[in-house]
């Protein structure tokens, strides 16, 4: 089943995108600042969410990981 039609999979994909963009921005901040406009602005926005809400994103990742571990 596609991640679009399953809510938990969609949330996992979004959280992983936020974490990946935030991690990549820490190594190449000028590259992500260039992406601010245009179609790749989504990655800039995800990196910004990961930077500003890092505590909540980390908590959500731990909850997601615990849910995956205990559900299987």
What's this, in brief?
By secondary structure, the chain is mainly alpha-helical.
The major sheet is characterized as:
none
Q: With helices defined by DSSP (H or I, 4 residues minimum), what is the helix count?
A: 4
Distance between the termini: 17 Å
Helix content: over 70%
SS strand fraction: under 5%
Overall structural class, as computed from helix and strand content, comes to: mainly alpha
Average pLDDT for all residues: 87
The coarse silhouette is globular
Radius of gyration equals 14 Å
What ranges have pLDDT less than 50 throughout 5 or more consecutive residues?
none
> What string gives the helices and strands in order?
HHHH
Count all strands and give the number: 0
Which short descriptors sum up this protein?
72 residues, mainly alpha, 79% helix, globular
Report on this structure.
With 72 residues, the chain is an all-alpha fold. It is built from four helices and no strands. The protein has helices spanning 7-27, 29-34, 41-52, 54-71. Helix 1 (7-27) packs across helix 3 (41-52) and helix 1 crosses helix 4. It starts with 6 loop residues before the first helix and ends with a helix.
């Amino acid at each position: 089943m596609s991640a679009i039609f399953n809510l938990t999979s969609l949330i996992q994909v979004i959280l992983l995108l936020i974490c990946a963009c935030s991690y990549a921005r820490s190594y190449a901040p000028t590259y992500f600042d260039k992406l601010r406009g245009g179609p790749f602005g989504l990655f800039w926005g995800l990196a910004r969410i990961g930077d500003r809400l890092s505590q909540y994103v980390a908590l959500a990742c731990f909850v997601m990981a615990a849910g995956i571990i205990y559900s299987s």
